[in-house]
Amino acid sequence: MSPSLINSPVGPDRRTDPFRPAGRLVLLALALAIPAFAKGHQMESPPFLTGKLVMIPRMGLVLRTAKKDLKLTARTSYLFHTLQDKRLANREVRLEGVTQPDGTFQVAKLFTAHDGKLYRVRYYCEVCNIEALEPGNCVCCQQPTELQEIAVSDSK
Ligand SMILES: [Zn+2]
Q1: How far apart, in whole angstroms, are the C-alpha atoms of residue 94 and residue 110?
Q2: Which of 2, 56, 96, 117 could form a disulfide with 109 if both were Cys (CB 3.0 to 4.6 A apart)?
């Protein structure tokens, strides 16, 4: 072993070692985050897609984006039923979610879009004053619920 190794500053540096792993983790996190930011052209944290909801025979429900048709799944059956609502067909929407390994897009959140503004979709019974999770009849009075769009504040 060469004397230069023995006298290297490794010894004194050990005192600062407890802090080093944290520093490395931060660097690692940054290194991982940068490519993720570079990939999407938007800087917002949840990945999202904009396009139109289209039902295609044999393929099923897709989001028609400027580039292609993306087959959709949803995180919950309530949401999937909402995405399939005929009243939302061919509507401009923004979908937040995750692209699955098989290339489908799993929707976690749905917004409709009008003139650049986002709206939350809900099913509401005015009679009972209650909100339903998916399209269909009111759980209380069994009358059809009304599709409503609630403006989402700009901060979201
Ligand atoms: Zn009702």
Answers
A1: 6
A2: 96
